[in-house]
Amino acid sequence: MRLSQMLFVTLREDPADAEIPSHKLLLRAGYIRRIGAGVYAYLPLMWRVLQKVSQIVREEMNATGAQETLLPQLQPAELWKESGRWDTYTKAEGIMFAFTDRREQEVALGPTHEEVVTYIARDMIKSYRQLPQHLYQIQSKFRDEIRPRFGLMRGREFIMKDGYSFHADEESLKKTYNDMYTAYSNMLRRSGLAFRPVEADSGAIGGSGSTEFMVLADAGEDEVLYTEDGKYAANVEKAVSLPGDAVASTFSSYEKRETPGTDTIEKLCKNLQCSPTQVVKNVLYQVVYDNGMTVLVLVSIRGDQEVNEVKLINELTKAAANYNAKTILSLTVPDAEAQSKWAAKALPLGYIAPDISDDVIKSDKDIAPKFLRLVDATAVELKNFVTGANESGYHVVGANWNQQIKLPESIVDVRKAKPGDMAVHDPQQTIKSARGIEVGHIFQLGTKYSEAMGATFTNEQGEEKPLVMGCYGVGVSRLAQSAVEQSYDKDGIIFPVAIAPYHAIISIPNINDANQVEVAEKLYQELNQAGVETLLDDRNERAGVKFKDADLIGIPFRIVTGKALANGKVEVVKRKTKESQEIPIEEVVTTLFSWVEKEIKG
Ligand code: ATP
Ligand code: MG
Predict the structure, then answer these.
(1) The domain 3-240+433-484 belongs to what CATH superfamily?
(2) 441 CA from centroid of ligand 1 (Å)
């Protein structure tokens, strides 16, 4: 491609609405243009990057025997109603673009394809003889994200590879899952990324079957907890650890104390001269289930610990059936306004005890009459602890479970693991924290969708069984931007060779010099013919402008047909290291070809 003919516009200044380096650079270098919130045009350079990433993904998927397909983006509501996700996706999370068509039918733009693919499997898979199957596709997905940001990192329309596998049993699922683990690791390695596979939350389905592939970068929205021995890495949403030991209580007898102005743990501990590890903290939540039922949830946890809301949501989803509900619409910490809707009297906020009376809840058909009381394991172990007295300005000290305060029935792990904790697999290892960008997620789904939608097959024994499923996603557009987030300098992008839009760029310093032009044109033809994808900067611009642009767009190798021509050579500059060398004209093609090969093959 000739730059003189390309729709190529670079910006000198950082665009005002871009916050992170990769977003700024992709805009400045003319890779993308914003069309609307979370909606971007992939300009010709970006499209080449995306196609390269897609091709790597495709090769790794095909190598596992998965079959490429293309499923509709326009999806009928019925399928989502069958799986039970219509309400969650359109109302609770509200992440799905849904509308009514001219036939008065509800339809949605696909944020993901479990429903569509399960529908196909139900129709086409009848026998164990047809199993396993694995279909994947690469296409645009639509998600009405609350906070679209960082360019392609969190778009409302973005490109994903999603794959879905079907199996007769768990063992077959695990095999494909392991194959995907390898395929995903290969994809990221080949794309030139530094990444870490981490244990991920699997929602209320539980199980250990979910791994996220995190690209390590400060701009990452996810927090990864890991140990330096390399034996543990998990998304903070899912992470477990051993909390530090609690300090032995300094209180030996049960007493109510006046503790005015101590509605936070910090103030309380200062007032009572105690450690937060001696306190049972009680955190109030309000959950609304899909049947409209509001339940007040009281979580008791050790004072120095925080509640992990993802773990809490999983517990509350498990409890949904007790309220004749299926899923959660919202989980919030009720503010004054929310409380006024259900509180029969003012709550002693900041002074609540685990046994606060259910009388504080108004009687109403849509409000559960009793608190759902959960106690985290960290609080269960405490002796002679401090907690609220259910009266503003008062706490109790020296309390013990089932002596003064009844231990709630549900003992759960809803504690947030944090850096500095001890690792479960080896308490000598300290938990560390890093930021990550989730570029891939592989998941053992089990029979959630096949059961809900009646996708069954006949097994070897002639019994009808639900299909066992897995699903596997890669954010193709997010991955491409993550590569930039991991690799740039003050002058611009440094694309890994494997996914760079072009391998090389020939910059002609002076297009009025016939010799410069002639050598450049010749090399341009020969390089492209040899498979070295080459851009020709034949614009009528100053050399300085050309070099700046070449650096900005991050093409791995720059060839300059300048002064060295006098000795039958050209200057070749490596973008990454800025290392420059003169190479005889007749050796350029073989040299560049071998450099590219070496980088791509690794
Ligand atoms: P996140 O937690 O970042 O919202 P997710 O867990 O909802 O992502 P999945 O449903 O697992 O995402 O989708 C598979 C992959 O698609 C993700 O690992 C990510 O790389 C990509 N992805 C998801 N949402 C977006 C988005 N809004 N913009 C760009 N890529 C996305
Ligand atoms: Mg995910």
Answers:
(1) Bira Bifunctional Protein; Domain 2 (3.30.930.10)
(2) 8
Number of H helices, E strands in the chain: 15, 31
Identify the band that residue 87 occupies on the pLDDT scale cut at 50, 70 and 90.
confident
Q: What is the CATH number of domain 502-601?
A: 3.40.50.800
pLDDT at 400: 97
Q: How far is CA 428 from the centre of its chain?
A: 29
CA of 477 to the centre of ligand 1 (A): 10
Q: Which amino acid is at 595?
A: W
In the CATH scheme, what is the code of domain 255-412?
3.90.960.10
Place of tokens 């190529």: 8
Encoded tokens for 126: 């009848």
Going 377 to 378 to 384 to 389, the CA torsion angle's sign is negative
CA distance 207 to 448: 13
Burial 395-429 (b: 16+ CB within 10 A, else e): bbbbbebeeebebbeeebebbbbbeebbbeeeeeb
Cα separation, 509 vs 522, whole angstroms:
16
- CB atoms within 5 A of ion ligand 2 belong to 441
Beta strands in 110-221 (DSSP E): 133-142, 157-167, 195-199, 210-216
This model's pTM is above 0.90: yes
Contacts of 180 (CB under 8 A, 6+ apart): 64, 163, 442, 470, 472
Closest-CA residue to 198 (of 181, 175, 220, 186): 181
**Who lines ligand 1 at CB under 6 A?**
112, 143, 145, 154-155, 158, 160, 438-441, 473, 475, 477-478
Residue 370 token pair: 């009793």
| Coil/strand/helix, residue 510 | coil
Residue 397 has pLDDT above 70, yes or no: yes
* Contact indicator for 217, 20 with CB cutoff of 8 Å: no
pLDDT digits (tens, 9 = 90+) for 252-275: 999 999 999 998 999 999 999 999
Domain limits of the chain? 3-240+433-484, 255-412, 502-601
DSSP letter at 551 equals: H
Ligand 1 mutation pick, 85, 89, 438, max ligand atoms within 8 A of CB? 438
The 10s digit of each residue's pLDDT in 404-458 is 999 999 999 999 999 999 999 999 999 999 999 999 999 999 999 999 999 999 9
